[in-house]
Design goal:
6-stranded mixed β-sheet, binds adenosine-5'-triphosphate, 454 residues, alpha+beta, 7-stranded mixed β-sheet, globular
Protein backbone atom coordinates (compact mmCIF):
# COMPACT_ATOMS: atom_id res chain seq x y z
CA UNK A 1 0.00 0.00 0.00
CA UNK A 2 2.79 2.41 0.97
CA UNK A 3 4.19 2.58 -2.57
CA UNK A 4 0.81 3.35 -4.18
CA UNK A 5 1.03 6.49 -6.27
CA UNK A 6 -1.53 8.85 -7.73
CA UNK A 7 -1.45 8.91 -11.54
CA UNK A 8 -0.84 12.64 -11.66
CA UNK A 9 1.72 14.77 -9.83
CA UNK A 10 0.90 17.99 -8.03
CA UNK A 11 2.96 20.17 -10.36
CA UNK A 12 0.87 19.05 -13.35
CA UNK A 13 -2.40 19.86 -11.53
CA UNK A 14 -1.17 23.22 -10.23
CA UNK A 15 0.03 24.24 -13.67
CA UNK A 16 -3.18 23.14 -15.42
CA UNK A 17 -5.24 25.04 -12.83
CA UNK A 18 -3.14 28.16 -13.28
CA UNK A 19 -3.04 27.98 -17.10
CA UNK A 20 -6.73 27.37 -17.66
CA UNK A 21 -8.14 29.62 -14.94
CA UNK A 22 -9.23 27.15 -12.26
CA UNK A 23 -7.05 28.40 -9.40
CA UNK A 24 -4.59 31.31 -9.03
CA UNK A 25 -2.27 32.27 -6.17
CA UNK A 26 -3.97 34.95 -4.07
CA UNK A 27 -2.83 38.57 -4.61
CA UNK A 28 -0.51 37.28 -7.32
CA UNK A 29 0.45 40.72 -8.66
CA UNK A 30 1.94 41.44 -5.22
CA UNK A 31 3.88 38.20 -5.18
CA UNK A 32 1.11 36.05 -3.70
CA UNK A 33 0.11 35.44 -0.09
CA UNK A 34 1.41 32.22 1.38
CA UNK A 35 -1.15 29.39 1.20
CA UNK A 36 -4.04 31.56 0.03
CA UNK A 37 -5.70 30.77 -3.30
CA UNK A 38 -8.24 32.39 -5.59
CA UNK A 39 -10.66 30.37 -7.69
CA UNK A 40 -10.74 31.66 -11.27
CA UNK A 41 -13.69 31.49 -13.67
CA UNK A 42 -13.53 27.71 -14.13
CA UNK A 43 -12.60 26.95 -10.51
CA UNK A 44 -15.48 29.04 -9.22
CA UNK A 45 -17.90 27.01 -11.39
CA UNK A 46 -16.38 23.69 -10.35
CA UNK A 47 -16.45 24.60 -6.67
CA UNK A 48 -20.03 25.85 -6.88
CA UNK A 49 -21.12 22.67 -8.64
CA UNK A 50 -19.54 20.59 -5.86
CA UNK A 51 -21.23 22.62 -3.14
CA UNK A 52 -24.57 22.47 -4.98
CA UNK A 53 -24.25 18.68 -5.32
CA UNK A 54 -23.66 18.38 -1.56
CA UNK A 55 -26.54 20.71 -0.66
CA UNK A 56 -28.82 18.79 -3.00
CA UNK A 57 -27.88 15.36 -1.59
CA UNK A 58 -27.65 16.31 2.08
CA UNK A 59 -30.33 18.99 2.49
CA UNK A 60 -32.79 19.19 -0.39
CA UNK A 61 -33.35 15.51 -1.05
CA UNK A 62 -33.86 14.68 2.62
CA UNK A 63 -36.74 15.31 5.00
CA UNK A 64 -34.54 14.95 8.07
CA UNK A 65 -31.90 17.63 7.33
CA UNK A 66 -32.23 21.42 7.19
CA UNK A 67 -29.71 24.06 6.16
CA UNK A 68 -28.12 26.94 8.04
CA UNK A 69 -25.83 29.85 7.19
CA UNK A 70 -24.36 31.22 10.41
CA UNK A 71 -21.88 34.07 10.83
CA UNK A 72 -18.11 33.65 10.83
CA UNK A 73 -17.58 35.90 13.85
CA UNK A 74 -19.21 34.52 16.97
CA UNK A 75 -19.39 35.38 20.66
CA UNK A 76 -15.97 34.63 22.20
CA UNK A 77 -17.65 32.42 24.85
CA UNK A 78 -18.42 29.94 22.04
CA UNK A 79 -14.75 29.03 21.82
CA UNK A 80 -14.37 28.74 25.57
CA UNK A 81 -17.34 26.37 25.71
CA UNK A 82 -16.23 24.33 22.69
CA UNK A 83 -12.77 23.85 24.17
CA UNK A 84 -11.01 25.55 21.27
CA UNK A 85 -9.33 28.24 23.39
CA UNK A 86 -7.48 25.57 25.33
CA UNK A 87 -7.41 22.54 23.06
CA UNK A 88 -7.30 23.75 19.47
CA UNK A 89 -3.54 23.59 19.32
CA UNK A 90 -0.82 21.86 17.41
CA UNK A 91 2.64 21.11 18.83
CA UNK A 92 5.12 23.63 17.41
CA UNK A 93 8.90 23.28 17.24
CA UNK A 94 11.26 26.02 16.17
CA UNK A 95 14.73 25.69 14.63
CA UNK A 96 17.33 27.34 16.87
CA UNK A 97 19.47 28.24 13.82
CA UNK A 98 17.12 29.40 11.03
CA UNK A 99 14.03 30.07 13.20
CA UNK A 100 11.74 28.22 10.83
CA UNK A 101 8.73 26.68 12.57
CA UNK A 102 7.25 23.22 12.04
CA UNK A 103 4.44 21.07 13.37
CA UNK A 104 6.24 18.65 15.68
CA UNK A 105 4.23 15.67 14.42
CA UNK A 106 5.22 16.45 10.83
CA UNK A 107 9.02 16.35 11.29
CA UNK A 108 10.97 13.18 11.70
CA UNK A 109 13.80 13.15 14.23
CA UNK A 110 15.19 16.15 16.09
CA UNK A 111 16.90 18.07 13.27
CA UNK A 112 15.49 20.99 11.29
CA UNK A 113 14.32 19.76 7.83
CA UNK A 114 15.40 23.12 6.40
CA UNK A 115 18.98 23.59 7.67
CA UNK A 116 19.70 20.60 9.88
CA UNK A 117 19.86 22.82 12.98
CA UNK A 118 18.65 21.86 16.42
CA UNK A 119 14.92 22.03 17.10
CA UNK A 120 13.37 23.46 20.26
CA UNK A 121 11.16 21.42 22.58
CA UNK A 122 7.54 21.40 21.35
CA UNK A 123 5.08 23.96 22.70
CA UNK A 124 1.35 24.15 22.03
CA UNK A 125 0.33 26.74 19.44
CA UNK A 126 -3.33 27.81 19.18
CA UNK A 127 -4.54 27.75 15.57
CA UNK A 128 -7.36 30.27 15.89
CA UNK A 129 -7.03 33.65 14.16
CA UNK A 130 -7.71 36.53 16.53
CA UNK A 131 -9.05 39.92 15.62
CA UNK A 132 -10.83 42.83 17.31
CA UNK A 133 -14.45 43.79 17.01
CA UNK A 134 -15.30 47.49 16.92
CA UNK A 135 -12.95 50.46 17.04
CA UNK A 136 -10.96 49.52 20.18
CA UNK A 137 -8.11 47.09 20.02
CA UNK A 138 -8.19 45.75 23.56
CA UNK A 139 -8.64 42.35 25.20
CA UNK A 140 -12.35 42.90 25.80
CA UNK A 141 -12.90 43.27 22.05
CA UNK A 142 -11.14 40.07 20.95
CA UNK A 143 -13.09 37.84 18.57
CA UNK A 144 -11.97 34.82 16.56
CA UNK A 145 -12.45 33.77 12.98
CA UNK A 146 -14.24 30.43 13.31
CA UNK A 147 -11.90 27.45 12.87
CA UNK A 148 -14.84 25.18 12.00
CA UNK A 149 -18.38 25.86 10.87
CA UNK A 150 -20.14 23.43 13.22
CA UNK A 151 -20.20 25.64 16.32
CA UNK A 152 -22.64 27.93 14.49
CA UNK A 153 -24.90 24.88 14.23
CA UNK A 154 -24.69 23.94 17.92
CA UNK A 155 -25.46 27.45 19.16
CA UNK A 156 -28.50 27.55 16.85
CA UNK A 157 -29.76 24.14 17.93
CA UNK A 158 -32.68 25.57 19.90
CA UNK A 159 -33.61 28.12 17.22
CA UNK A 160 -33.75 25.45 14.54
CA UNK A 161 -35.62 22.99 16.74
CA UNK A 162 -38.24 25.57 17.72
CA UNK A 163 -38.78 26.92 14.23
CA UNK A 164 -38.78 23.65 12.28
CA UNK A 165 -40.28 21.31 14.90
CA UNK A 166 -38.00 18.51 13.67
CA UNK A 167 -38.06 15.22 15.56
CA UNK A 168 -35.00 13.10 16.29
CA UNK A 169 -33.08 11.97 14.38
CA UNK A 170 -32.47 15.11 12.34
CA UNK A 171 -29.56 17.08 11.01
CA UNK A 172 -28.44 20.65 10.44
CA UNK A 173 -26.06 21.28 7.54
CA UNK A 174 -23.92 24.26 6.64
CA UNK A 175 -21.34 25.30 4.06
CA UNK A 176 -18.94 28.09 4.92
CA UNK A 177 -15.46 29.46 5.38
CA UNK A 178 -13.24 28.37 8.24
CA UNK A 179 -9.83 29.75 9.23
CA UNK A 180 -6.88 28.05 10.88
CA UNK A 181 -3.48 29.57 11.43
CA UNK A 182 -1.81 26.32 10.40
CA UNK A 183 1.87 26.06 11.35
CA UNK A 184 2.78 24.53 8.03
CA UNK A 185 0.63 24.82 4.96
CA UNK A 186 1.14 23.44 1.51
CA UNK A 187 0.28 20.89 -1.11
CA UNK A 188 -1.64 23.53 -3.07
CA UNK A 189 -5.22 23.89 -1.80
CA UNK A 190 -4.93 20.82 0.45
CA UNK A 191 -3.88 22.74 3.55
CA UNK A 192 -4.46 26.46 3.62
CA UNK A 193 -5.29 28.97 6.32
CA UNK A 194 -8.62 29.99 4.80
CA UNK A 195 -10.79 27.21 3.46
CA UNK A 196 -14.37 26.05 3.17
CA UNK A 197 -16.12 23.24 4.97
CA UNK A 198 -19.37 21.37 4.37
CA UNK A 199 -20.50 20.11 7.74
CA UNK A 200 -23.50 18.12 8.88
CA UNK A 201 -24.42 17.73 12.53
CA UNK A 202 -26.82 14.81 12.78
CA UNK A 203 -28.62 14.69 16.15
CA UNK A 204 -29.75 11.30 17.42
CA UNK A 205 -31.06 9.64 20.58
CA UNK A 206 -28.28 8.60 22.99
CA UNK A 207 -27.37 5.00 22.25
CA UNK A 208 -28.25 5.29 18.56
CA UNK A 209 -25.07 7.16 17.61
CA UNK A 210 -22.98 4.10 16.71
CA UNK A 211 -25.54 2.97 14.14
CA UNK A 212 -25.89 6.43 12.62
CA UNK A 213 -22.12 6.76 12.45
CA UNK A 214 -21.94 3.68 10.21
CA UNK A 215 -24.89 4.94 8.18
CA UNK A 216 -23.24 8.31 7.41
CA UNK A 217 -19.90 6.73 6.62
CA UNK A 218 -21.59 4.61 3.97
CA UNK A 219 -23.66 7.56 2.67
CA UNK A 220 -20.51 9.60 2.12
CA UNK A 221 -18.67 6.78 0.35
CA UNK A 222 -21.70 6.47 -1.95
CA UNK A 223 -21.84 10.21 -2.45
CA UNK A 224 -18.16 10.38 -3.44
CA UNK A 225 -18.81 7.55 -5.91
CA UNK A 226 -21.76 9.48 -7.36
CA UNK A 227 -19.35 12.34 -8.09
CA UNK A 228 -17.19 9.93 -10.06
CA UNK A 229 -14.39 9.45 -7.49
CA UNK A 230 -12.94 5.97 -7.86
CA UNK A 231 -13.47 3.76 -4.83
CA UNK A 232 -9.91 2.41 -5.03
CA UNK A 233 -8.67 5.96 -4.45
CA UNK A 234 -10.47 6.16 -1.09
CA UNK A 235 -9.71 4.34 2.11
CA UNK A 236 -10.73 4.57 5.74
CA UNK A 237 -8.54 5.34 8.71
CA UNK A 238 -9.85 4.78 12.22
CA UNK A 239 -8.36 7.08 14.87
CA UNK A 240 -6.64 5.33 17.78
CA UNK A 241 -7.91 6.15 21.29
CA UNK A 242 -4.82 8.31 21.96
CA UNK A 243 -5.36 10.57 18.93
CA UNK A 244 -9.08 11.32 19.31
CA UNK A 245 -10.03 15.00 19.64
CA UNK A 246 -11.21 16.15 23.04
CA UNK A 247 -14.87 15.87 21.99
CA UNK A 248 -14.85 12.62 20.06
CA UNK A 249 -15.49 9.02 21.11
CA UNK A 250 -14.91 7.70 17.59
CA UNK A 251 -13.41 9.26 14.46
CA UNK A 252 -12.91 7.70 11.05
CA UNK A 253 -11.18 9.67 8.32
CA UNK A 254 -11.81 9.04 4.65
CA UNK A 255 -8.45 9.34 2.93
CA UNK A 256 -7.90 10.03 -0.75
CA UNK A 257 -4.81 9.05 -2.76
CA UNK A 258 -3.59 12.62 -3.44
CA UNK A 259 -0.39 13.24 -5.45
CA UNK A 260 1.55 13.51 -2.15
CA UNK A 261 0.06 10.22 -0.88
CA UNK A 262 -2.93 9.11 1.19
CA UNK A 263 -4.29 12.10 3.12
CA UNK A 264 -7.50 13.10 4.87
CA UNK A 265 -10.32 14.24 2.63
CA UNK A 266 -13.03 14.08 5.25
CA UNK A 267 -13.56 13.13 8.87
CA UNK A 268 -16.56 11.58 10.60
CA UNK A 269 -16.70 12.05 14.35
CA UNK A 270 -19.02 10.85 17.08
CA UNK A 271 -19.15 14.01 19.21
CA UNK A 272 -21.58 12.52 21.75
CA UNK A 273 -23.41 15.25 23.66
CA UNK A 274 -20.22 17.23 24.33
CA UNK A 275 -21.08 20.39 22.39
CA UNK A 276 -24.72 20.82 23.43
CA UNK A 277 -23.81 20.12 27.07
CA UNK A 278 -20.94 22.63 27.02
CA UNK A 279 -22.97 25.38 25.35
CA UNK A 280 -25.78 24.68 27.81
CA UNK A 281 -23.35 25.14 30.68
CA UNK A 282 -21.65 28.28 29.36
CA UNK A 283 -24.80 30.05 28.11
CA UNK A 284 -27.03 29.06 31.01
CA UNK A 285 -29.68 27.83 28.53
CA UNK A 286 -30.62 24.19 28.62
CA UNK A 287 -30.05 22.81 25.14
CA UNK A 288 -32.18 19.72 25.18
CA UNK A 289 -34.92 17.92 23.33
CA UNK A 290 -38.27 16.82 24.74
CA UNK A 291 -38.78 13.20 23.85
CA UNK A 292 -42.52 12.68 23.33
CA UNK A 293 -42.12 8.92 23.66
CA UNK A 294 -40.45 8.85 27.06
CA UNK A 295 -41.72 12.28 28.22
CA UNK A 296 -38.16 13.18 29.16
CA UNK A 297 -35.75 15.96 28.27
CA UNK A 298 -32.65 14.50 26.67
CA UNK A 299 -29.45 15.99 25.30
CA UNK A 300 -29.11 14.46 21.82
CA UNK A 301 -25.86 12.90 20.67
CA UNK A 302 -24.36 14.03 17.40
CA UNK A 303 -22.61 12.38 14.47
CA UNK A 304 -20.59 14.80 12.36
CA UNK A 305 -19.38 14.18 8.83
CA UNK A 306 -17.14 17.10 7.88
CA UNK A 307 -15.58 17.57 4.46
CA UNK A 308 -13.31 20.32 3.18
CA UNK A 309 -14.57 21.83 -0.07
CA UNK A 310 -11.07 22.69 -1.27
CA UNK A 311 -9.73 19.20 -0.55
CA UNK A 312 -12.69 17.79 -2.45
CA UNK A 313 -11.97 20.13 -5.39
CA UNK A 314 -8.38 18.85 -5.41
CA UNK A 315 -9.47 15.20 -5.18
CA UNK A 316 -11.93 15.69 -8.03
CA UNK A 317 -9.33 17.39 -10.23
CA UNK A 318 -6.80 14.61 -9.58
CA UNK A 319 -9.35 11.85 -10.11
CA UNK A 320 -10.58 13.38 -13.35
CA UNK A 321 -7.09 13.95 -14.81
CA UNK A 322 -6.19 11.65 -17.68
CA UNK A 323 -3.95 11.57 -20.72
CA UNK A 324 -4.73 9.55 -23.83
CA UNK A 325 -4.32 9.67 -27.58
CA UNK A 326 -6.68 11.30 -30.06
CA UNK A 327 -5.97 11.28 -33.81
CA UNK A 328 -2.39 10.21 -33.15
CA UNK A 329 -1.77 13.12 -30.76
CA UNK A 330 -1.68 12.93 -26.99
CA UNK A 331 -4.42 14.83 -25.24
CA UNK A 332 -5.05 15.88 -21.63
CA UNK A 333 -8.59 15.28 -20.56
CA UNK A 334 -10.39 16.06 -17.31
CA UNK A 335 -13.03 13.36 -17.09
CA UNK A 336 -15.28 15.28 -14.72
CA UNK A 337 -18.66 13.88 -13.89
CA UNK A 338 -20.88 16.02 -16.18
CA UNK A 339 -22.72 17.50 -13.18
CA UNK A 340 -19.43 18.99 -11.93
CA UNK A 341 -17.93 20.17 -15.23
CA UNK A 342 -17.66 23.99 -15.38
CA UNK A 343 -19.10 24.02 -18.90
CA UNK A 344 -21.52 21.32 -20.01
CA UNK A 345 -21.09 22.08 -23.71
CA UNK A 346 -18.94 24.19 -26.03
CA UNK A 347 -20.44 25.73 -29.15
CA UNK A 348 -17.92 25.74 -32.00
CA UNK A 349 -18.65 27.26 -35.43
CA UNK A 350 -16.33 25.70 -37.99
CA UNK A 351 -15.40 29.12 -39.34
CA UNK A 352 -15.58 32.72 -38.20
CA UNK A 353 -17.62 33.63 -41.26
CA UNK A 354 -21.27 34.61 -41.50
CA UNK A 355 -23.85 33.13 -41.64
CA UNK A 356 -22.18 30.33 -39.63
CA UNK A 357 -21.39 32.63 -36.72
CA UNK A 358 -24.97 33.85 -36.53
CA UNK A 359 -26.29 30.29 -36.46
CA UNK A 360 -23.78 29.25 -33.76
CA UNK A 361 -24.45 32.36 -31.65
CA UNK A 362 -28.18 31.74 -31.79
CA UNK A 363 -27.72 28.11 -30.72
CA UNK A 364 -25.47 29.23 -27.86
CA UNK A 365 -27.89 31.90 -26.68
CA UNK A 366 -30.78 29.41 -26.81
CA UNK A 367 -28.93 26.83 -24.69
CA UNK A 368 -27.42 29.24 -22.20
CA UNK A 369 -30.56 29.71 -20.11
CA UNK A 370 -30.67 26.03 -19.19
CA UNK A 371 -27.22 24.61 -19.88
CA UNK A 372 -23.90 26.23 -18.99
CA UNK A 373 -22.08 26.64 -22.30
CA UNK A 374 -19.04 28.37 -23.72
CA UNK A 375 -18.46 29.70 -27.22
CA UNK A 376 -15.15 29.31 -29.00
CA UNK A 377 -14.34 30.24 -32.60
CA UNK A 378 -10.54 30.58 -32.40
CA UNK A 379 -8.18 28.19 -34.26
CA UNK A 380 -8.80 24.79 -35.84
CA UNK A 381 -11.65 22.68 -34.56
CA UNK A 382 -9.15 19.98 -33.47
CA UNK A 383 -7.34 22.52 -31.26
CA UNK A 384 -10.66 23.65 -29.86
CA UNK A 385 -11.65 20.06 -28.99
CA UNK A 386 -8.31 19.71 -27.14
CA UNK A 387 -8.97 22.90 -25.19
CA UNK A 388 -12.41 21.69 -24.11
CA UNK A 389 -11.06 18.22 -23.23
CA UNK A 390 -8.46 19.87 -21.01
CA UNK A 391 -11.10 21.72 -18.99
CA UNK A 392 -13.46 18.76 -18.87
CA UNK A 393 -16.34 19.97 -21.09
CA UNK A 394 -18.42 16.82 -21.73
CA UNK A 395 -19.86 17.90 -25.12
CA UNK A 396 -18.82 19.96 -28.12
CA UNK A 397 -21.41 21.16 -30.61
CA UNK A 398 -19.91 21.85 -34.01
CA UNK A 399 -21.71 23.95 -36.58
CA UNK A 400 -20.39 23.41 -40.13
CA UNK A 401 -21.43 24.62 -43.59
CA UNK A 402 -23.73 21.65 -44.03
CA UNK A 403 -25.54 22.80 -40.86
CA UNK A 404 -26.77 25.81 -42.84
CA UNK A 405 -28.41 23.45 -45.33
CA UNK A 406 -29.74 20.59 -43.22
CA UNK A 407 -30.20 22.44 -39.88
CA UNK A 408 -28.21 19.75 -38.09
CA UNK A 409 -25.09 19.96 -35.91
CA UNK A 410 -22.46 17.50 -34.75
CA UNK A 411 -22.32 16.65 -31.05
CA UNK A 412 -19.01 15.15 -29.95
CA UNK A 413 -18.55 13.45 -26.63
CA UNK A 414 -15.43 14.14 -24.56
CA UNK A 415 -14.72 10.64 -23.24
CA UNK A 416 -15.54 8.36 -26.17
CA UNK A 417 -14.96 11.05 -28.84
CA UNK A 418 -18.05 9.60 -30.54
CA UNK A 419 -19.89 11.98 -32.81
CA UNK A 420 -23.55 12.11 -33.70
CA UNK A 421 -25.51 14.38 -35.99
CA UNK A 422 -28.53 16.01 -34.37
CA UNK A 423 -31.23 18.43 -35.61
CA UNK A 424 -30.86 21.90 -34.11
CA UNK A 425 -34.32 21.66 -32.54
CA UNK A 426 -33.21 18.52 -30.65
CA UNK A 427 -29.90 19.80 -29.22
CA UNK A 428 -31.21 20.84 -25.84
CA UNK A 429 -33.29 17.70 -25.30
CA UNK A 430 -30.38 15.49 -26.38
CA UNK A 431 -27.88 17.23 -24.10
CA UNK A 432 -30.27 17.22 -21.16
CA UNK A 433 -30.80 13.48 -21.52
CA UNK A 434 -27.08 12.83 -21.85
CA UNK A 435 -26.21 15.07 -18.90
CA UNK A 436 -28.76 13.13 -16.86
CA UNK A 437 -26.74 10.01 -17.63
CA UNK A 438 -28.65 8.45 -20.50
CA UNK A 439 -26.61 6.47 -22.96
CA UNK A 440 -24.65 8.58 -25.38
CA UNK A 441 -25.75 6.72 -28.46
CA UNK A 442 -29.46 7.22 -27.91
CA UNK A 443 -30.31 9.27 -30.96
CA UNK A 444 -32.98 11.92 -31.15
CA UNK A 445 -35.51 11.73 -34.02
CA UNK A 446 -33.68 12.56 -37.23
CA UNK A 447 -30.25 11.98 -35.64
CA UNK A 448 -27.45 9.78 -37.02
CA UNK A 449 -24.11 8.38 -35.87
CA UNK A 450 -21.43 10.02 -37.97
CA UNK A 451 -18.35 8.39 -36.54
CA UNK A 452 -15.56 8.94 -34.14
CA UNK A 453 -13.04 11.71 -34.57
CA UNK A 454 -10.61 13.46 -32.28
P1 LIG B 1 -5.76 17.66 9.36
O1 LIG B 1 -5.51 16.47 10.28
O2 LIG B 1 -5.45 17.40 7.92
O3 LIG B 1 -5.20 18.94 9.89
P2 LIG B 1 -8.24 17.90 10.72
O4 LIG B 1 -8.44 16.50 11.21
O5 LIG B 1 -7.75 18.92 11.66
O6 LIG B 1 -7.34 17.89 9.39
P3 LIG B 1 -11.02 18.50 10.77
O7 LIG B 1 -10.92 19.37 11.95
O8 LIG B 1 -11.59 17.13 10.93
O9 LIG B 1 -9.58 18.39 10.06
O10 LIG B 1 -11.76 19.30 9.61
C1 LIG B 1 -12.70 18.71 8.74
C2 LIG B 1 -12.28 18.81 7.30
O11 LIG B 1 -11.94 20.16 6.97
C3 LIG B 1 -11.03 18.01 6.95
O12 LIG B 1 -11.36 16.66 6.68
C4 LIG B 1 -10.54 18.73 5.72
O13 LIG B 1 -11.21 18.26 4.57
C5 LIG B 1 -10.91 20.18 5.99
N1 LIG B 1 -9.74 20.93 6.47
C6 LIG B 1 -9.25 20.97 7.73
N2 LIG B 1 -8.18 21.78 7.79
C7 LIG B 1 -7.97 22.26 6.54
C8 LIG B 1 -7.02 23.17 5.96
N3 LIG B 1 -6.07 23.74 6.70
N4 LIG B 1 -7.11 23.44 4.64
C9 LIG B 1 -8.08 22.87 3.88
N5 LIG B 1 -9.01 22.03 4.38
C10 LIG B 1 -8.98 21.72 5.68
Amino acid sequence: MADEKAKVDMETIVSLCRRRGFIFPSSEIYGGLNSCWDYGPLGAELKKNIKDAWWQAIVRERDDVVGLDSSILMHPKVWEASGHLVNFTDPLVECKSCNQRFRADQVEGTKCPNCGGELSAPRQFNLMFKTFMGPVEEDAAVVYLRPETCQGIFVNFENVLNTTRKRLPFGIAQIGKAFRNEITTGNFIFRSREFEQMELEYFVRPGEDARWFDYWLEQYLNWFASLGIKREHLRLREHGKDELSHYSSRTVDIHYLFPMGWEELQGIANRGNFDLTQHGKYSGKELSYFDEETKEHIVPHVVEPSVGVDRLVLAILCDAYDEDVAQGESRVVLRFHPSLAPFKAAVLPLSKKEPLVKMASDINAGLRKNIMTTYDDAQSVGRRYRRQDEIGTPFCITIDFQSLEDKQVTIRERDSMNQIRVPVAEIQKTLTAKLAGEDFLILPPGGAVVGKKG
